[in-house]
């Protein structure tokens, strides 16, 4: 399972650590891993009491449970499952690229290039977006990282640059 985050860095790191601890405790108690959906439900339940506070957390859980799963959970406890998510202040720019070019027949290389382009546009146009990302390709066999994705973004074309992700935490 991978977790990406958007929001206050301190809040996101705190809740990622709490979530990792709870996932590990579940695995120790029950002898098997918690599913992505159950993890999202657990996180949503833990965040809900803080609804209306100053806490700013938006986590996207990514993984494979009988098929690909992508679930967004935010600090008010909202939980959404979908095929594509872009979260944060730069997301309208990323969605502009994704809406224009996303198709489900993309090869792995084309998908990574599209993700890199979407992130480049978001970080180039939005002053509050990050500038470094690790792109992961998740399949039933596990995940792999795109090693060409970990570069600082500049004004050069996105095909030669990296893409963004605030934090990526592995819970293996």
From TrEMBL:
InterPro entries in alphabetical order: Ntn_hydrolases_N, Pept_T1A_subB, Proteasome_sua/b, Proteasome_suB-type
Q: Which domain of life is it from?
A: Eukaryota
* Keywords, ordered alphabetically: Cytoplasm, Hydrolase, Protease, Proteasome, Threonine protease
Q: In its keyword annotation, does this UniProt entry include Protease?
A: yes
- Gene3D superfamilies for this protein: Glutamine Phosphoribosylpyrophosphate, subunit 1, domain 1
Q: What EC number(s) would the UniProt record show?
A: 3.4.25.1
Recorded GO molecular functions are:
threonine-type endopeptidase activity
Instruction: Name the enzyme's class.
Output: hydrolase
Q: Which reaction does it catalyse?
A: Cleavage of peptide bonds with very broad specificity
Give Gene Ontology CC terms: cytoplasm; nucleus; proteasome core complex
Task: List where in the cell it is found.
Answer: Nucleus
Q: Please name the GO terms of the biological process aspect recorded for this protein, alphabetically.
A: proteolysis involved in protein catabolic process
Any Pfam family: Proteasome
PANTHER family noted in UniProt: METALLOPROTEASE TLDD, PROTEASOME SUBUNIT BETA
| Stated role | The proteasome is a multicatalytic proteinase complex which is characterized by its ability to cleave peptides with Arg, Phe, Tyr, Leu, and Glu adjacent to the leaving group at neutral or slightly basic pH. The proteasome has an ATP-dependent proteolytic activity. This subunit is involved in antigen processing to generate class I binding peptides.
Q: What is this protein called?
A: proteasome endopeptidase complex
Source organism per UniProt: Oreochromis niloticus
